[in-house]
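Input sequence (242 aa), recorded before submission:
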Amino acid sequence: MPIRAVLWDIDDTLFDYTGADRAGLARHLADEGLAERYGTAVEALALWRRFTDRNWARFSAGEVTFQGQRRDRVRDFLEAPGLSDAEADDWFGRYVVCYQAAWAVFPDVVPVLDALAAGFRHGVLSNSSVANQDPKLRHLGLRERFEVLVCAAELGVSKPQAAAFLAACEALGLPPGEVAYVGDQPEIDARGSRDAGLTAVWLDRDGGGGPAPAGVHRIAGLDQLPGLLAADTRFGARSGIR
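Predicted structure, token format:
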């Protein structure tokens, strides 16, 4: 079956999430009088991401709500377990203002979407919420590029679970064999989509991600994606793959 649609991850695939997160968190900590507490911007972001990943895992396991994982992330980061829900929400809200001010798409995104527009349908599958990702895509001028926006918070399952990928394919009305998935995470995005029966494309922008999982196509930039999709990638063609 030919590939008829591309499903996309958002953060660190279309949108420079790490750059915005680093700059936004640094600005927020400065505004809060906490700039010296966490060392460099890179060190602060690494700690913030560690608590983000830990609490997201709890949300994925059904142990906490979407809003609850945000609140607990703030409590962990500030080492303030007694922080009220309202205080945690306010702190996170102030961080979001700084984070949003740094939003930007990667420079290869619009050219590849333009190049693929005539030949493929497009959708999004994100491990976030529609309430979070829809305004982001609209702010970045990308929302109208995608027929569907499917997110873990509304689905009740998240990547790398096969059910998440299959739900996104169902939203497009296509079987997984006719859909490619493009994301920056080799396990969550690439291996997960491969195991669900999609054509898996791992976007490894910095080339430091190690070997690709078996059956996964790795590209260093989105400019390589049109050539990859033009080839019969499921039967060993290697156009645009490294």
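Checked by second reader. The beta strands are 5-8, 121-126, 148-151, 179-183, 199-203, 217-219.
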